[in-house]
């Protein structure tokens, strides 16, 4: 005698076969079996839950897709873009590949905006170099931080803003001051300039801000000589774990009280929270703690990150903020 349970299971398997193997849609399956479409949907769901149907995605990108979903859900991001790191890639190649992918995936969002702000550093340098040429004459590009300096001029915000504007046939603004000044008094004097104040005010209201991320010992400011050993010691004392747009933050994502933050000319972290879309690009699992802090601070809407750093920041979150062995600084110097 055929049991009721067997009959129900047969119906479930038949629905699953017609849907997954025969390629019928749910309405067609319902008509074939003689059940309602909502009931077919429930049968298919139960078939997955009981293990009758197992869905397996056979593609290498499933790993990065899972990381993207985990990051998005864990930190409330609008989007996460995770770039797979391949064996043999050095830091520069990781940045280049990430920049190329980011340019392709973010092109539409950027060209549909009216104003875009850019920070500085090697990651953003690679992003600008790899960004495709496209017409967006309506667009204005603004620096988010002072963009003058003797060394590594190609990394400064003014140069990056100009190069990106050239690729877009867009208008470019310049902020003719250093990123960080020798004294707070000098900063106040420069801010007396109406032009500088007006540009910084505009920068706080861009549609899209593109920034990098650093840690005290792996920062553009350290490499360019803006930070001395005494500055680094002071930052450590104040609990700094990273910087975003050259504003140093603690593990909770709050701006630290170190005087060096008062010498930076650029938009501050509170301004970043009010910008509609902040895109943060970061590579190097040694920056996992800095990235976790920035995510806790709520500064990032779209995260572009390599797979190793993505995994490291998720491990760090699960560990309650403890750096996992193997996730320490990897020698990355410029962000």
Automatic annotation (TrEMBL):
Matching entries from InterPro entries are given as: Cro/C1-type_HTH, Homeodomain-like_sf, NagB/RpiA_transferase-like, SorC_transcr_regulators, Sugar-bd_dom_put, WH-like_DNA-bd_sf
Q: Which UniProt keywords apply?
A: DNA-binding, Transcription, Transcription regulation
Under PROSITE patterns, the record lists: HTH_CROC1 (PS50943)
Gene Ontology MF terms in the entry: carbohydrate binding; DNA binding
Which SUPFAM superfamilies does the entry mention?
A: Homeodomain-like, NagB/RpiA/CoA transferase-like
Looking at the record, the residues that make up the HTH cro/C1-type domain are 21-43
Superkingdom of this protein's organism: Bacteria
Family stated for the protein in its record:
Belongs to the SorC transcriptional regulatory family.
Tell me what this protein is called: DNA-binding transcriptional regulator LsrR (DeoR family)
Organism field: Desmospora activa DSM 45169
